[in-house]
Specification:
homodimer, 37% helix, globular
Chain lengths: 472, 472
């Protein structure tokens, strides 16, 4: 079970080590216990985070697994990174963890400085403003709000708010609460709070029984792979989707529902790792500008370096930057970057008690130092290439099990014939010491940490090749 | 400036110590810096959290202030509490801070145990289930969702979801996304994400320009003080509001908009510290049951012990418990308690990547130990009585400046003649070494930590008495 692998980060383990089936007896016992307190049916297994290191997740039964899912893509530089341990051991940092401020009114002395050395040091070009939030959903919710305010101010053309607006907004009615909408894409995922959920269209179980808003939903391209064999078909598919976006904006305006913004993921993640070309996104950005809509890029899952650039949308080569970019997960704190013109025109308009968490900013600053020092963006490109090449090879050998191999950096995925096969493959892989994640109907997605190296890719490919060879 | 005060918690300071105006020169400089990155107009001053201890907040200009606002009511046991410092210094706890898991799928070994020793050890009677979230808004958003699912399942009467429901929900339409509503109260505050914001009606600036939902809004009683002088008027006022609640439920059902739940704060906080009688809430609970609506009590600001009971709604003496109780702020993690019947009937229905944060659960467990060990609920009752008695005395002496003194535990407040006077009083107090917070149009609210003692109340009252005597 143990594969020999080069150790190049001294805190990483040298391979998986399996002792029981997963979930093992201790995990099963704990599941039963937790299920008494809350629905625990989504739990895969229980973890021993103290023993987890680098790319390896250790469970409570002593199994050590190569983790290619990294807590739904939210562990940037591996488990128990020595730099983060050191950070926590410094007495001067204690206060940041135990005295959580209301950042919007009483920030700590180093707040701006820390934003500069962390988030602003990796800000997408043209987006010099940043607001932090506690999670991805709050990031998108507040980005929507910033967009709605911007749109309304543009429409008003002056700063005077009428008495009617101030009164009607208190009872949820226009003109104070205007009938604005965000346009989203079928297959997209932007979070699960009510505003976000109105733009999420990945799985029915996320949306069922929850009241929603009549906001326009455009089709997202369904590309054929390999891309080079289907250039014309894919171009036509993308053109069809873009046309539909414009039609929807016009159609909704006719019914007095104004599309104030468009939200899109650079790669639809929960929805099945659906890619579109850089050209598609450039044209989408143009459509947004043409119709006066804000262009919001949701980088909650794609951001942080895994595609080989810090932000996946930096691959597109936009002339005019996105208007708003949201983040969370690997960034440890949620939040959003935005252009100057989207800056709230008064205090307390984008606000909540915590507005993020300085202890997360502290850790993020260190994570970004490590990313730069260890050149982890180039590593993602390199290791991603090793992974993708290997997957393409497996696809050639096992076309009945693997299809539509795709990826950017380590942000890779492939399709399986169906949901049952996908889940079976994930389970077998887990018992062989590899944690994988699913997405969409029948895809498997790779979301390793940024310290996932070529040799981890080879290790995985060896194990998975054996699994495919023996798959029945 | 320094008042002599008994030191009974050894880490607390013995009084305010003022060196400059607040904000001082260093704060002003930092404000300018932060304002380059984001709208920083809400910032009061910048803090030195390393030097802040107990009930005292120290700013970057070296001013030490008695903090009666405690980061919008979110510091449970004071700044830099020795028990929390000790917790952070224990090497075995490091992992919890640097390896943040996706709690819903890969929880740490001690997850259930920690929920038991923390949240469940203080769970409201009859609410044995708990789900954690990262903030107050996400707590309410997800509580709404649990209520909508519960209501729909009740309506369905069976577990079979139709194909039409599964398909329509993907495009935000009924029957999959039913036209359900939460009933809320004018003056209430439940957060600022789109779902929460549809139930928030405290200030126009929170809601202006943001699209909303046509959900019913009932009047909240406007009681007259002192309560004992206006028994009959107040009863009539409460009866009027309750009648309106029932009328709205019926009226909205007629237009096919179903009120699935009622959300209410035990004391409307942001909206101006508006109280209602225990009898009002008991009757509201009955109305909810009578009409088949869930009864959601939002304890984000009132919870955690400041009213003298762990949950403010425990004062009401309900026969039938609330259905759902949300929390955040002083609880350090967001989340909600609920009855068994509100348990999601499938995994991933109430879900997000982080689902809270085990590092907050770790600190909360310690905070709850301190609350129990130091008998801080009784302390809140006792210190609150000292504070309220003193405020009533000031009201008698300065009726042109102070009116409608009210409170439960240390959760006290009073009205000033108008917004300008209120803000002036807050500024003067700050320059005399006391941090106060406003709420509503013209109220000042007290939100001290749970280690606020009688002597802190007397210290404040002395300072404030001088301020009132010299107020021009």
């Amino acid at each position: 079970m143990v594969s020999a692998a080069k150790i190049d980060v001294d805190f990483d383990y040298d391979g998986p080590l399996m002792k029981t089936e997963v979930p093992g007896p201790r995990s099963r016992e704990l599941m039963k216990q937790l299920n008494g307190i809350q629905n625990a049916e989504a739990v895969h297994f229980f973890c021993n985070y103290e023993e987890s290191r680098g790319n390896y997740l250790v469970d409570v039964d002593g199994n050590r697994m190569l983790d290619l899912y990294s807590q739904i893509s939210s562990i940037p530089i591996g488990y128990s990174h020595p730099s983060l341990i050191k950070l926590l051991q410094q007495p001067q940092n204690l206060s940041t963890f135990i005295n959580r401020p209301a950042l919007g009114i009483l920030p700590p002395e180093n707040f701006a400085e820390r934003l500069k050395e962390s988030l602003l040091s990796v800000a997408p070009k043209g987006l010099p403003q940043v607001i932090t939030m506690s999670c991805g959903s709050c990031s998108n919710e507040n980005a929507f709000k910033a967009i709605f305010m911007w749109y309304r101010n543009k429409e008003r053309g002056h700063n005077n708010v009428t008495k009617e607006e101030l009164e009607s907004c208190m009872i949820n009615q226009p003109p104070g609460c205007p009938d604005y909408a965000m346009l989203s894409f079928m297959g997209g995922f932007h979070g699960r709070t009510l505003g976000c959920l109105a733009t999420t269209h990945s799985k029915a179980i996320h949306k069922l029984d929850i009241p929603s808003l009549d906001w326009p939903i455009a089709p997202f391209p369904r590309l054929k792979y390999p891309l080079e064999d289907f250039v014309k078909e894919n171009q036509q598919e993308e053109a069809r989707c873009l046309e539909e976006v414009e039609d929807l904006i016009v159609k909704y305006r006719k019914k007095k529902k104004i599309v104030a913004g468009i939200i899109v993921e650079p790669i639809q993640s929960e929805g099945g790792d659906n890619h579109a070309s850089d050209d598609f996104f450039r044209k989408l950005r143009d459509i947004a500008r043409k119709h006066g809509c804000a262009f919001l890029v949701d980088e909650v899952q794609t951001g942080g370096g895994c595609t080989g650039k810090f932000w996946a949308h930096e691959h597109w080569g936009l002339d005019d930057p996105a208007d708003v970019v949201t983040f969370s997960k690997k960034m440890m704190t949620g939040g959003f970057f935005h252009k100057e013109e989207f800056r709230p025109n008064a205090p307390y308009r984008i606000f909540n008690t915590w507005l993020g968490d300085p202890s997360k900013n502290l850790m993020l600053a260190e994570v970004i130092k490590v990313i730069k020092r260890e050149d982890l963006l180039n590593n993602a490109t390199h290791a991603g290439k090793a992974l993708l090449t290997g997957l393409l090879d497996l696809q050639a050998r096992y076309p009945h099990l693997i299809s539509r191999v795709r990826g950017r950096g380590t942000f890779c995925s492939f399709d399986t014939p169906n949901d049952a096969t996908r889940n079976k493959l994930i389970t077998i892989a887990r018992n062989k010491g590899v944690v994988l994640g699913g997405c969409g109907d029948r895809s498997i997605r790779f979301r390793p940490t940024l310290i996932f190296k070529d040799h981890h890719a080879h290790l995985f490919l060896n194990i998975f090749s054996d699994i495919l060879a023996n798959f029945k």
